[in-house]
Amino acid sequence: DATAGSNFLRGIIEADLASGKHASRTTVNGTPLPPVVTRFPPEPNGYLHIGHAKSICLNFGLARDYGGRCTMRFDDTNPTKEEQEYVDGILDAVKWLGFDWKDQSGEHLYFASDYFPQMYHMAEYLIQSGHAYVDSQSAEQMAANRGSFSEPGKNSPYRDRPAQESLDLFRRMKAGEFKDGEHIVRVKIDMASPNMNLRDPAIYRIRHAHHHRTGDEWCIYPMYDYAHPIEDAIEHVTHSVCTLEFQDHRPFYDWLLERLTEGGFFKRPLPYQYEFARLNVTYVITSKRKLRQLVEENIVDGWDDPRMPTIVGIRRRGFTPESLQLFCDRTGTTKSDGWTDYGMLEAAVRDDLDPKAPRATAVLRPLRLVIDNFPEGLSEECSAPVHPHHPERGHRHFPITKELWIEEEDFTETPPKGYFRLYPGNKVRLRYGYVVECTGCDKDEHGRVIAVHCNYFADSRSGTPGADNYKVKGNIHWVSASHALEAEVRLYDRLFTDPQPDAGGKDFKLALNPKSKEVITAYLEQGMRAALPDEKFQFERHGYFVADRVDSTPGKPVFNRVVTLKDSWGK
Ligand code: ATP
Ligand code: MG
Ligand code: MG
């Protein structure tokens, strides 16, 4: 794709492949390992969002492009926030996006909690070899002794306790003899390091909590910074890709894997961490806490509301997996933070759907058009291509009759300059039908236009030789009033009016777009009755629409607007 954004990780991987850095690796059983192994490591504590989609496309995409493997790993080391429901939702989202954790060598679906026994043994090793100790300071003392960015920290009074004593305490921590917070295991690095992450980081804490997979087997749990490099090394990851805020964690990542390699737990080459700038999209918030607030305060209709940036929401909105992959490729992968315009997301789904989506006619703001000289009761069949660039996809058929629905905005009594649609005395083409000339309109007692009148030219029908004799500038869509399918259509728009709704501590609820959802009753071409849930269409002149995957039923579709045809925002 010529529009693909740059991705610095490709350069790194290509150089590593060229130098053979990860070539000829095998597992302990002698099974060959691919030269590129990445991973997607979500915490199963919520619904995935567009930012996670970026990480999925990046990690699985790199593995696919370089003949490698991407492991699907649940980073479930924090027992209190995690649930099976989220595990299922995440697997669903990854599959829907078009990726798979299976390869010739099998399934690569892992849970960090399965490594708890190994992680525990490694921690015992670190204690025994003098690299870690049990600290018995209170949380307050520990915080006070940590120092600050400008001030070095102070060694814990427990730092030099004998290894045997630490080991004994650690085993008793595991046995459940202590309460939460009574002791903690820390590694011994440098309390004066300018990098706070190296000031004797904690690796194990006591947490009497039920874990969604290991139950009550453990009451001590590894810290994220300890668990993550170990998970990567166990899974033979070569390129561990994470967001920029983890840059300062990398020295500990490397330190830990070096110590554990000295201890014989791992073999070189070791995994290496690379950081990239997280995806920020304008008009979108991705903080889980704030998204939860939108759901709990009923500002949106659930996690899968088509306005939500969750993958379930984006999917229900009618985005395709291909459009998200295209978007993620186009945004590129860099090391400098920035904002991606929401318009890029919309452009990606337009570009993906344009060549695929069958066309259909929908009148969203109906106004009655009466063809006065059209015979009462006559119904003539018109046809239009399913797709203008794919004649092989055939034609759709719909009748023209005396009374039609047209768009309210396709008629005016007083045309502004450049208006080529219906006004008294003007001719337009009824798309795929006849040329008509407007003769006037009917109004109700408030002066509102309730019907438009016209006459048609019987020799002007589209596709017949006579059609060429009529040169008209306006070309409007319509549906037969007696044949149209009445359907609920939900016109969705951006959820916020502010491009950075929660930047700088702003109250994002003040930036809600009051017009982000409008529900209307529209008149559709009758063939739309057969639309299947999740089927996408281009409603001509309007945009792309999808039959809602939850509320559509056979014969009674409900449509969501995915995106308009053109970007009209702020214009
Ligand atoms: P959140 O802050 O929304 O809770 P998280 O980082 O805590 O997200 P994880 O489950 O840890 O959620 O994320 C899984 C992976 O997705 C991580 O590797 C993380 O770096 C990546 N990720 C999350 N948000 C983004 C983003 N906006 N852009 C790119 N990658 C992201
Ligand atoms: Mg999180
Ligand atoms: Mg995280």
TrEMBL record:
<keyword id="KW-0030">Aminoacyl-tRNA synthetase</keyword>
<dbReference type="InterPro" id="IPR001412">
    <property type="entry name" value="aa-tRNA-synth_I_CS"/>
</dbReference>
<feature type="binding site">
    <location>
        <position position="224"/>
    </location>
    <ligand>
        <name>L-glutamine</name>
    </ligand>
</feature>
<dbReference type="Pfam" id="PF20974">
    <property type="entry name" value="tRNA-synt_1c_C2"/>
</dbReference>
<dbReference type="GO" id="GO:0005524">
    <property type="term" value="F:ATP binding"/>
</dbReference>
<keyword id="KW-0067">ATP-binding</keyword>
<dbReference type="InterPro" id="IPR022861">
    <property type="entry name" value="Gln_tRNA_ligase_bac"/>
</dbReference>
<feature type="binding site">
    <location>
        <begin position="278"/>
        <end position="279"/>
    </location>
    <ligand>
        <name>ATP</name>
    </ligand>
</feature>
<feature type="domain" description="Glutamyl/glutaminyl-tRNA synthetase class Ib anti-codon binding">
    <location>
        <begin position="357"/>
        <end position="456"/>
    </location>
</feature>
<dbReference type="InterPro" id="IPR014729">
    <property type="entry name" value="Rossmann-like_a/b/a_fold"/>
</dbReference>
<keyword id="KW-0648">Protein biosynthesis</keyword>
<feature type="domain" description="tRNA synthetases class I (E and Q) anti-codon binding">
    <location>
        <begin position="476"/>
        <end position="548"/>
    </location>
</feature>
<keyword id="KW-0547">Nucleotide-binding</keyword>
<dbReference type="GO" id="GO:0004819">
    <property type="term" value="F:glutamine-tRNA ligase activity"/>
</dbReference>
<keyword id="KW-0963">Cytoplasm</keyword>
<dbReference type="InterPro" id="IPR011035">
    <property type="entry name" value="Ribosomal_bL25/Gln-tRNA_synth"/>
</dbReference>
<dbReference type="InterPro" id="IPR020056">
    <property type="entry name" value="Rbsml_bL25/Gln-tRNA_synth_N"/>
</dbReference>
<dbReference type="InterPro" id="IPR050132">
    <property type="entry name" value="Gln/Glu-tRNA_Ligase"/>
</dbReference>
<dbReference type="Pfam" id="PF03950">
    <property type="entry name" value="tRNA-synt_1c_C"/>
</dbReference>
<protein>
    <recommendedName>
        <fullName>Glutamine--tRNA ligase</fullName>
        <ecNumber>6.1.1.18</ecNumber>
    </recommendedName>
</protein>
<feature type="domain" description="Glutamyl/glutaminyl-tRNA synthetase class Ib catalytic">
    <location>
        <begin position="36"/>
        <end position="353"/>
    </location>
</feature>
<feature type="binding site">
    <location>
        <begin position="43"/>
        <end position="45"/>
    </location>
    <ligand>
        <name>ATP</name>
    </ligand>
</feature>
<dbReference type="GO" id="GO:0006425">
    <property type="term" value="P:glutaminyl-tRNA aminoacylation"/>
</dbReference>
<dbReference type="InterPro" id="IPR020061">
    <property type="entry name" value="Glu_tRNA_lig_a-bdl"/>
</dbReference>
<dbReference type="InterPro" id="IPR020058">
    <property type="entry name" value="Glu/Gln-tRNA-synth_Ib_cat-dom"/>
</dbReference>
<feature type="short sequence motif" description="'KMSKS' region">
    <location>
        <begin position="285"/>
        <end position="289"/>
    </location>
</feature>
<dbReference type="GO" id="GO:0006424">
    <property type="term" value="P:glutamyl-tRNA aminoacylation"/>
</dbReference>
<feature type="binding site">
    <location>
        <position position="243"/>
    </location>
    <ligand>
        <name>ATP</name>
    </ligand>
</feature>
<keyword id="KW-0436">Ligase</keyword>
<dbReference type="InterPro" id="IPR004514">
    <property type="entry name" value="Gln-tRNA-synth"/>
</dbReference>
<comment type="subunit">
    <text>Monomer.</text>
</comment>
<feature type="binding site">
    <location>
        <position position="75"/>
    </location>
    <ligand>
        <name>L-glutamine</name>
    </ligand>
</feature>
<dbReference type="Pfam" id="PF00749">
    <property type="entry name" value="tRNA-synt_1c"/>
</dbReference>
<feature type="short sequence motif" description="'HIGH' region">
    <location>
        <begin position="42"/>
        <end position="52"/>
    </location>
</feature>
<feature type="binding site">
    <location>
        <begin position="49"/>
        <end position="55"/>
    </location>
    <ligand>
        <name>ATP</name>
    </ligand>
</feature>
<comment type="similarity">
    <text>Belongs to the class-I aminoacyl-tRNA synthetase family.</text>
</comment>
<dbReference type="InterPro" id="IPR000924">
    <property type="entry name" value="Glu/Gln-tRNA-synth"/>
</dbReference>
<dbReference type="InterPro" id="IPR049437">
    <property type="entry name" value="tRNA-synt_1c_C2"/>
</dbReference>
<dbReference type="InterPro" id="IPR020059">
    <property type="entry name" value="Glu/Gln-tRNA-synth_Ib_codon-bd"/>
</dbReference>
<dbReference type="GO" id="GO:0005829">
    <property type="term" value="C:cytosol"/>
</dbReference>
